[in-house]
Amino acid sequence: MIPNSKAFQWDSVSPHANEELSEAQCWSLLGGQETGRIAFLQDGRLLVFPVNYLVHDKSVYFRTSEDSGLALLPGDLNTSFQVDAHDGEAMAGWSVLVSGRANSVKDESLLTTLWGMRTAAPYGGGQRNLFVGIDPTQVTGRRVRMG
């Protein structure tokens, strides 16, 4: 066995308890963070990028540039957004996954609302003036903690 107080034998039972989160709990956790990961297939390859995001009316939005790979997302049915948090000392954490169709935001009223919301600057440099939203078809989450 590796000399580590947290190590356990591979054939032992994990001391962790898993809890499925309700959709309401998932949205609450999503609203409390500002950075997550967007995942999608492009040319047969799974790509994952960190993005700063907003939650509004049970949708997830992020900004990108019109010439980035993320600008190709609109209309993609197979887009997922994931955010999580963990506490290594407590060996606890949670994860939320939002899956659905990605669409560029065209509605002027919605764009005005999104531009008016407080958020961290996008990770990528340059102009990030294209809002992309994920219209969720599935929202799932899990919390893990010591049992």
- Counted by DSSP, the helix tally is 2
Biggest sheet character: 6 strands, antiparallel, barrel
Q: What distance lies between the first and last C-alpha atoms, to the nearest angstrom? A: 22 Å
Give the tally of structural domains.
Answer: 1
Q: Find the CATH topology.
A: Pnp Oxidase, Chain A
Question: Care to give the gist of this entry?
Answer:
Helices cover 12% and strands 48% of the residues. With 147 residues, the protein is mostly beta strands.
List the main descriptive attributes of the protein structure presented here.
147 residues; mainly beta; 6-stranded antiparallel β-barrel; 2 helices; 7 strands; elongated
Report on this model:
The chain is mainly beta and 147 residues long. It has a single domain (23-135), classed as Electron Transport, Fmn-binding Protein, Chain A (Pnp Oxidase, Chain A, Roll). 12% of the residues lie in helices and 48% in strands. The chain has two helices and seven strands, in the order βαβββββαβ. It has helices at 23-31, 108-116, and strands at residues 16-20, 35-42, 45-56, 59-64, 79-87, 92-104, 130-146.
Question: Secondary-structure map with pairings?
Answer:
Layout (H helix, E strand, L loop, with lengths): L15 E5 L2 H9 L3 E8 L2 E12 L2 E6 L14 E9 L4 E13 L3 H9 L13 E17 L1
Antiparallel strand pairs: 1-7, 2-3, 2-5, 3-4, 4-7, 5-6, 6-7
